[in-house]
Amino acid sequence: MSTPILQVVGYQDSGKTLFLERFIEEAAVDGFRIGVIKHHGHGSPDLYDEKKDTGRHRSAGAVVTGVSGGGVISIQATQEDDWQLERLLDLYKSFQLDLILVEGYKEKPLPKVLMIRTQADLTLLTMKNIRAIVTKEHIDTESIPTYSFYNMGLCIKELLKELKGE
């Protein structure tokens, strides 16, 4: 069986990270093993200290470095082009997760939750595969479940019930 994927999209400061934090907390209580992929759309993310062993390994030319200890592994891999979401999903599926959450990658046709902050964000409603909308604005949608930003917990509970097959 394929690992379910849920994408959370919205513009900057729309509440994506807050939604994901709350979703992960609820899912963890229910025993879900969650993986998260975040698209950093604003240049390269901060990397680890280049003076540590893994940084030295990267500087020497390694394209994949990892450090493991205490049940934790941290892996960093570099390539010339941006990582394609499909390759990242393949990697995450090797971890035997119950769900993969994706923040960003707006253009991908995955089941998604839209985070709507202002009227200008309503352009996102043209996207495909919208499962839910969390909004600070009043939106009339008959076919898509819509939740207040201030009651996003209800949206999370409904999505988790669906994932559990209830």
Describe this structure in words.
The protein has 166 residues and is an alpha/beta fold. 26% of the residues lie in helices and 25% in strands. It has four helices and eight strands. A hairpin with a 2-residue loop joins strand 3 (64-69) and strand 4 (72-77). Helix 1 (16-29) crosses helix 4 (152-163). The longest helix is centred in the N-terminal third of the chain and has 14 residues, at 16-29. The radius of gyration is 18 Å and the shape is globular.
Structural class: alpha/beta
Radius of gyration: 18 Å
The largest beta-sheet arranges its strands as 2-5-1-6-7-8
User: Portion of residues in helices?
Assistant: 25-40%
Distance between the termini: 18 Å
In percent terms, what proportion of residues is strand? 25-35%
Q: What order do the helices and strands follow? A: EHEHEEHEEEEH
Biggest β-sheet description: 6 strands, parallel
Record field, number of beta strands: 8
- Ranges where pLDDT stays below 50 over 5 or more residues in a row are none
Could you say which overall geometry the principal axes of the C-alpha atoms support? Answer: globular
Mean pLDDT value: 86
Number of helices: 4
Please describe the topology of this protein.
Elements: E1 5-10, H1 16-29, E2 34-38, H2 53-60, E3 64-69, E4 72-77, H3 85-93, E5 99-103, E6 112-116, E7 130-135, E8 146-148, H4 152-163
Parallel strand pairs: 1-5, 1-6, 2-5, 6-7, 7-8
Antiparallel strand pairs: 3-4
Helix pairs in contact: 1-4
How would you concisely characterize the structure shown here?
This protein is α/β, with parallel strands linked by helices and 166 residues long. The protein is built from four helices and eight strands. The chain is globular.
